[in-house]
């Protein structure tokens, strides 16, 4: 399996600040790209994950909070570190409720900023892997026929073979055959694992 490289995106209309953050990230061996506006970033961002977005709150036109919210509306859940010179309570609450990893006051110390970026990258990588697992499970579920999915739903609900056969008006042997295919297609070795897979597939995207 090829490991996808972490990447940090720095969005700040202050060129000096953006360059400083990018230099810190590059020193740590991680690729960094800078953008002078939220609009420029949105036009260029291709959805690469795992990654981290470091953005200022107050910028011309679209703010950092508006950028964060626009990404979420588009279904992009990249980890976000927000920088601000104005750490007002309502701003902090809005940022964290919007899914920001953390919010730091400017000027942030190098160690503090690096710890935040490293933590955000780790968090995003974990969420990215969880999303990938859910997609794989959903792909397996999609290979099941409608009758097999009926059996699966009843299995997960705790029904035994005879109960399933009675409820679906089929033979116990038919239920057993469908169960075998369900375990095979879902790549599960036990009922407990099968239930876990179904629960995980039903989880919301991170």
How would you describe what is shown here?
The structure is a single chain. 57% of the residues lie in helices and 13% in strands. The protein starts with 6 loop residues before the first strand and ends in a 5-residue tail after the last helix. Strand 1 (7-11), helix 1 (15-27) and strand 2 (31-35) form a beta-alpha-beta unit. Helix 5 packs across helix 9 and helix 7 (161-168) crosses helix 8. The model has no long low-confidence stretch (mean pLDDT 89). It has a 5-stranded parallel beta sheet with strand order 2-1-3-4-5, with helices on both faces. The protein is α/β, with parallel strands linked by helices and 206 residues long. The longest helix is centred in the middle third of the chain and has 33 residues, at 110-142. It has helices at residues 15-27, 38-44, 64-73, 89-97, 110-142, 146-156, 161-168, 172-186, 191-201; strands at residues 7-11, 31-35, 51-56, 79-84, 102-105. It is built from 9 helices and 5 strands.
Task: Give a concise summary.
The chain has 206 residues and is α/β, with parallel strands linked by helices.
